[in-house]
Design goal:
Blueprint lengths: L1 H15 L2 H5 L1 H6 L5 H28 L4 H8 L2 H34 L3 H15 L4 H9 L2 H16 L6 H9 L8 H25 L4 H28 L1 H4 L5 H7 L3 H30 L7 H15 L4 H52 L7 H13 L4 H20 L1
Keywords: Membrane, Transmembrane, Transmembrane helix
Protein name: Branched-chain amino acid transport protein
Organism: Oribacterium sinus F0268
């Protein structure tokens, strides 16, 4: 169970911290541009991130969603559902192509490779990895998260050890950084709303892969905490190095170069991995959405959208961040409101479903445990609980049986 929580939480962090956050570009525009107040803003953002991390993953588990529309259709009215569905589709595609652009910028800045080469490699990897089974995909999404966390801590220690800072100079340089936001409070809300818009499609799918709601809750909290720590630490590092960071597309990569060339090389690959994580999650969720009624269309849709995204990525990474992110963030305000209302309305039902699934798991465990008797009464109770579940009766019964059988198979190996 602990392994499952870690896998999902790391995958969630990997989905959220894409090219902008791990490279530092969006944090420069959203927070560092406001100086010390921007750092305070990231702390507030961190608290919000933990709360909504739990909400998003848990709602996905509660509704056992395969794509975001399955959750939205349950928590929003028909008109709002349609608006948010369209907004998420646009968000997946736009931020996906921004990630591909970030892949091009990353390898261009570090290795001098042509912009088109880095983007093409990222697009190709998205298509290849999509052919793996979902458990392996979850592992791929989370693999770079602990690495980038360690590397960011190393950068932070290097930045703040045995150095003094002229805060007046840092404030003055920060003030020259253009920001798409009028003040830090709107900035933090817009940034988080954007993060939700980009994370929700895949986060619902991640949550939908979890049967135990308690596991989903813990995964969301841990994932949200990971995101909040990384955002705050990276913003502090960027602020302390703002003179250098304000002059490049990939500021964290430029700061890493000050430590050691080999460290910088590794960090470039890690950023590239995180760019891929987010890009893959967005295009994967987009293809899932459009193929929900016909799974055979999944791969043609995914390949087609990735190819179009790659073609449009030549608009440029920095420019795309400054233009598209604020627009999507404002649309995300509606999503935050809907998620909050849904959580308040469904909280007692989620708690009931949580205990219902526990009872079903305990009952069906008797069937596969040689030391227990699975009676006719147990079978009838199991079926009745399945009918009481918010999920389709046959689906919930089948999934719980598979979960328990898998556990027994693992125990006997």
């Amino acid at each position: 169970m602990l392994k499952r929580i870690l896998n999902i939480s790391l995958a969630y962090v990997g989905v959220v911290i894409g090219a902008g956050l791990s490279s530092g570009q969006d944090l420069m525009q959203y927070f560092v541009s406001f100086g010390k107040w921007g750092i305070i803003g990231t702390i507030v953002l961190g608290i919000i991130s933990v709360v909504f991390g739990k909400i998003i993953i848990t709602l996905g588990s509660y509704f056992r969603s395969n794509d975001h529309s399955e959750v939205l259709s349950q928590i929003a009215g028909p008109i709002t559902n349609k608006i948010l569905d369209i907004a998420l589709i646009v968000s997946c595609f736009v931020v996906g192509l921004v990630m591909i652009a970030g892949a091009g910028s990353n390898l261009n800045q570090q290795f001098g490779l042509p912009f088109w080469a880095g983007g093409l490699l990222c697009a190709t990897l998205i298509i290849i990895v999509s052919f793996l089974d979902f458990e392996k995909i979850t592992g791929v999404l989370g693999i770079f998260t602990p690495i980038v966390f360690i590397m960011i801590i190393i950068i932070a220690v290097h930045t703040f050890t045995n150095r003094s800072f002229d805060f007046d100079e840092l404030e003055a340089i920060s003030a020259t950084i253009p920001s798409p936001m009028p003040n830090v409070w709107i900035s933090l809300l817009n940034y988080f709303a954007l993060a939700v818009m980009t994370a929700v499609p895949m986060a619902f799918v991640l949550g939908g892969s979890i049967m135990r709601i308690g596991v989903a809750e813990k995964s969301g909290i841990l994932g949200g905490l990971g995101v909040s720590i990384i955002i705050t630490v990276v913003t502090c590092v960027l602020y302390a190095n703002v003179k250098l960071a304000s002059t490049v597309d990939m500021p964290m990569l430029a700061i890493a170069e000050q430590i050691h060339p080999i460290f910088s090389l590794i960090y470039a690959f890690v950023i590239y991995g995180l760019i891929f994580n987010t890009a893959f999650s967005l295009f994967y969720a987009l293809a899932k959405r459009f193929s929900s009624d016909n799974p055979k269309r999944f791969y043609p849709i995914l390949i087609g959208t990735v190819v179009i995204g790659y073609a449009l990525s030549f608009m440029g990474f920095k420019e795309l961040v400054s233009i598209m992110y604020p627009i999507l963030g404002y649309i995300g305000f509606v999503m935050l409101a809907i998620l909050t209302i849904a959580w308040i309305k469904e909280k007692s039902n989620i708690k009931g479903e949580k205990f219902l699934r526990r009872k079903m798991i305990r009952l069906i465990t008797k069937k596969y445990d040689d030391n227990q008797d699975y009676t006719i009464k147990d079978k009838e109770k199991f079926h009745q609980l399945g009918e009481d579940s918010i999920v389709d009766t046959q689906s919930i019964k089948s999934d719980i049986k598979d979960l328990v059988k898998e556990k027994f198979n693992d125990d006997t190996r």
